[in-house]
Amino acid sequence: MNSKLNKKVGVIVIKDDILTNGKWEFDDNVAACFEDMLSRSIPQYDIMRKSILDLASIRINKILQRYSDDDLSICSQPFSLLDIGCSDGLQISDFLSRYNHGHYVGIDISEPMLRKARERFEYEIKTGVVSISHMDLRKEFPREYFDIITSTLCIQFTPIEYRQEILSNVYKSLNHEGIFLMVEKVLGETSALNNMFVENYYNLKKTNGYTQNQIDRKKLSLEGVLVPCTNKWNVELLHQAGFRQVDVFWRWMNFVGYIAIK
């Protein structure tokens, strides 16, 4: 793999030049180049990430207003956040760069990703600010309550028959007025619309340096692994989970960000 120095954060970013064979999995090769993969594969990736941070911050700031500086010196974790499918921890890192206080929990099913996250948060894990755990959402869910729950391009990798239960667990695990921010790849409402979205998306990937061979092989490897729903179906799943306030906060063709308030 090629690599480059990300001068903003002072780390080496490995370029995604993976040619996938077999079914897609978040293995060591993917973990090594994950951030480059996201930046070149997810449309408006930085805008989407900042939107999640800014919307969650509205809720966090309201919570922090209840505390004086003296209170915060005693209560170091006035709010809690769960990141479902935390991968290498980049999303949690966004929040840590803005807030000194809080308790952050990241869960993922990929051990290579979890290793990267634990390396990133070695100090924060030791001090109890961050907790990173292996968890299969088909079998279990964190036994805590959270003010914010995020899930960025994660639920789409779980079998459809488990999604309602997972989203119901999200709802149950939120505190009153807690918010859930979820980003998913979606199907178009008709096959014609979906084909247009997909074609435009693949053109974007070509513009970002992926070859047709890479695109075709990744598409094949993701079949049956990444299973998107329509936008309407995702909204219905959120309503069925118990959310009454649901809306779209960001959309690019077949990528959608949802916000739901308990």
From TrEMBL:
Pfam short name (any one): Methyltransf_25
Gene3D superfamilies reported for this sequence: Vaccinia Virus protein VP39 (3.40.50.150)
Domain annotation Methyltransferase: ranges: 82-178
Keywords: Methyltransferase, Transferase
InterPro entries the record matches: Methyltransf_25, SAM-dependent_MTases_sf
An example Gene Ontology molecular-function term: methyltransferase activity
Acyltransferase is among the record's keywords: no
Any single GO BP term: methylation
Protein name, entry field: Methyltransferase domain-containing protein
Organism for this UniProt entry: Blautia obeum
Organism phylogeny: Bacteria, Bacillati, Bacillota, Clostridia, Lachnospirales
